[in-house]
Design a protein that fits this description.
- The structure is a single chain.
- This protein has a domain at about 5-105.
- The two termini are about 40 Å apart.
- The protein has twelve helices and four strands; from the N terminus they run H-H-H-H-H-H-H-H-H-H-E-E-H-E-H-E.
- A hairpin with a 5-residue loop joins strand 1 and strand 2.
- Helix content is about 50%, strand content about 5%.
- The longest helix is centred in the C-terminal third of the chain and has 20 residues, at about 190-210.
- It has helices spanning about 10-25, 30-35, 40-50, 60-65, 70-85, 90-105, 110-115, 120-130, 140-145, 150-165, 190-210, 230-250; strands at about 165-170, 175, 220, 285.
- Helix 2 (about 30-35) packs across helix 3.
- The chain is mainly alpha-helical.
- It has a two-stranded antiparallel sheet. It has a two-stranded antiparallel ribbon with strand order 3-4.
Length: about 290
C-alpha cells in the first residue's frame, strides 16, 4: 500500500490507495467507497482527479479505512489543510509541520539498502531487466548500461536486487522485476543516499559529452523567489516528477532506461530588505 508520508498531495495518496486496494479486492468501486464514507461517488471521482476537495468532516472515516496510525493520521489531516490553503504564511507553516511529522520516522538503512543506494547501477540494472525479454545474461545486460559496468559489478548488483526482493527468477534462467518498492521513507539521514544523488548528478554532467543532444535534455535556469514560496515550489516539483512517472508507466514499448535529476538550491544569502516591484528577468540556460 502507498505510504502517506511520501505524499505532498492527499488526493494523489487516496487515488493511489484506491487503485492498490482495487487490485486486492476487485469489488472495490467508487460506489462502494461512497457507501463507506458517505461521499457521493461522482464527487469522489472529481476529488481523485484533483477537481475538488473532501469535506473536512469526512477525514476521520478515510483515516480509519486507510488504516492510518496516529502519526500518519495527523500527517493526513495536515496534508489536507496544506493542499487547501492559499495563504503563503500558513502554507509555509504547514509544510514544515509535514516535514517534522516525516522526520519522526528517521531510520537506519539495512546493509542491502545501503548497497543499493551506494551505486546507480542497481536501479539501472533493475529497470533494464524490466524491459528486456531475455534476462539470462546479466553480464551482457551490464554491458548495455550507459556507461557499461563490469561483469563483477553486474553480478553484485543482481545479488543486491535479489536480497531486497526487487527481482525474482522467471523460471527460464532469467529474471523478472517485482512490484516491491525500495524507498528511504521519511527523512532518512544516510551518506549512501547522498552518494546516490551525487553519482547520478555526475552521470548527468558526463552526459553532456557522452550523449548526442537529441538523446538527452539538459537545461538550467537562475531565478529569484520569495523564501516563503519554497514549500509551494517544492510541491510543484514533486507534482511534475509524479506526473512524468505516471506518463512513463503508460509506455507499452519502453526500450531504454533514463535518469532524471532535479536540483534546486540557493545561489545567494537571503536579502534583508529586498527591492519591491517586478523581479529581474531570469537567466536561462537552454537544453544543450
Amino acid at each position: 500500500m502507498p505510504e502517506v508520508l511520501d505524499y505532498l498531495e492527499y488526493r494523489e495518496y487516496l487515488k493511489d490507495w484506491f487503485v492498490e486496494t482495487k487490485k486486492d479486492n476487485p469489488f472495490t468501486s467508487y460506489r462502494y467507497l461512497g457507501q463507506k464514507t458517505g461521499v457521493d461517488p461522482a464527487w469522489l471521482v472529481r476529488v481523485f482527479q484533483k477537481e475538488g476537495h473532501l469535506n473536512e468532516s469526512t477525514l476521520p472515516v478515510f483515516i480509519r479505512i486507510c488504516g492510518l496510525d496516529d502519526r500518519r493520521a495527523e500527517y493526513f489531516k495536515t496534508l489536507y489543510r496544506f493542499n487547501k490553503t492559499k495563504a503563503k504564511q500558513t502554507l509555509s507553516e504547514l509544510y514544515y509541520k509535514l516535514l517534522e511529522l516525516r522526520s519522526l520516522e528517521t531510520r537506519v538503512l539495512s546493509e542491502p539498502e545501503l548497497a543499493y543506494f551506494g551505486s546507480w547501477a542497481c536501479a539501472a540494472l533493475r529497470a533494464l531487466i524490466g524491459i528486456t525479454k531475455d534476462t539470462s545474461d546479466i553480464a551482457g545486460l551490464g554491458k548495455h548500461l550507459n556507461p557499461p559496468i563490469s561483469q563483477d559489478d553486474a553480478r553484485n548488483a543482481l545479488g543486491i536486487l535479489k536480497q531486497l526482493g526487487l527481482v525474482v527468477p522467471d523460471g527460464t534462467g532469467g529474471w523478472n522485476i517485482t512490484d516491491q518498492i525500495i524507498s528511504t521513507g521519511g527523512e532518512v539521514k544516510s551518506s549512501a543516499v547522498r552518494s546516490f544523488h551525487r553519482h547520478t548528478m555526475e552521470l548527468a554532467q558526463e552526459s553532456l559529452d557522452r550523449h548526442k543532444p537529441e538523446e538527452r535534455d539538459i537545461s538550467s535556469v537562475v531565478f529569484t523567489a520569495d523564501e516563503s514560496d519554497l514549500p509551494e515550489i517544492k510541491h510543484k516539483i514533486e507534482e511534475f516528477r509524479r506526473g512524468l512517472l505516471q506518463f512513463a508507466r503508460k509506455s507499452e514499448r519502453a526500450d531504454r532506461v533514463y535518469a532524471l535529476n532535479i536540483a534546486m538550491y540557493p545561489l545567494s544569502d537571503k536579502v534583508a530588505d529586498p527591492a519591491t516591484g517586478p523581479t529581474s528577468p531570469e537567466n536561462k540556460g537552454g537544453a544543450k
